[in-house]
Amino acid sequence: MRAVALVGAALLLLATSGTAHAYPKPAALKGNVAAHDPSMIRSSSGYSVFSTHNSIEIRRSTDRVGFTRTGAALPSKPSWHFWYNVDGDAWAPDVSYHGGRYLLYYSVSSFGSNNSAIGLAVSRTAEPGTWVDQGIVYTSSTWDNYNAIDPSLLVDASGRWWLSFGSFWSGIHMIRIDPVTGKQSRTDTARRHLALRPEGTHAVEAPHIVRHGAYYYMFVSFDRCCARAESTYRIMVGRSTDPTGPYTDRAGVPMLNGGGTQILGTHGNIIGPGGQSVMRDGAEDVLVYHYYDGAAGGREALGLNRLGWDSQGWPYVR
């Protein structure tokens, strides 16, 4: 038994150290899994994955293994989308359930531009054809030093609502959300700064914050996305006792100074994992992300792994 414990401890050390060969493979999935920037929820009827492009793609599964494309969240593109994207397409959805309705935050932009907007749609069932767009939540313009993309909603331990977002330029930011409207609070309009990487490096983007124990954990993606087999995306994490920060990594480096502890990177045919979110599924925390499959010409694919938490409270991929 002691030998088994020592082997388990060694594997945990490798998994939390960023050593590429130690990372486990994602779960074996079937069906339509070519999803990018996935966000997943579970309801009484199964699992739904929402992803970038084609008016927010929706996939369904009854078992978290086989997935079928069922439609789009916003097939009739709202007219305001075209101010931020010539095709009116939407990116990087974040879906959650609160107060009897599903909330879908998403971004509309063009690659490499910070003329961007975050929108909100709501539904009672989360099914295609039931989403009602609520319009713009927050914007950035070409003269701003931040980017209003990759939104993610957090409800903290005190019941306050927050939306984190961001990418290139000045990194990750956060605003306060009114739970009634789902839009920015009118009484707290401050924009908090959560993470930044040194000038000249690649992006920090796709924030997703969850609470575990006494801490809030912010998962982000570092480096280059969306280049298929050339992608260098990797998933990083930092934590804070306050949802608004400051967030630091395992070594104590502030995420506003480029900090972040790597929990998943390229390994084998799994290239550039990122665009992540975390779903609570019963007693499990599941890391939901995309990667580029080196065994399939660099095609994007949905990745699922369980998360574990070590004795110091840091997450690792299982």
Automatic annotation (TrEMBL):
The keyword Flavoprotein does not apply. The record marks 150 as: Important for catalytic activity, responsible for pKa modulation of the active site Glu and correct orientation of both the proton donor and substrate. InterPro entries: GH43_arabinanases, Glyco_hydro_43, Glyco_hydro_43_endo_a_Ara-ase, Glyco_hydro_beta-prop_sf. Pathway: Glycan metabolism; L-arabinan degradation. Residues 1-22 form the signal peptide. Pfam families: Glyco_hydro_43. GO terms for biological process: arabinan catabolic process. PANTHER family: ARABINAN ENDO-1,5-ALPHA-L-ARABINOSIDASE, ARABINAN ENDO-1,5-ALPHA-L-ARABINOSIDASE A-RELATED. Belongs to the glycosyl hydrolase 43 family. This is Arabinan endo-1,5-alpha-L-arabinosidase. It comes from Lentzea flaviverrucosa.
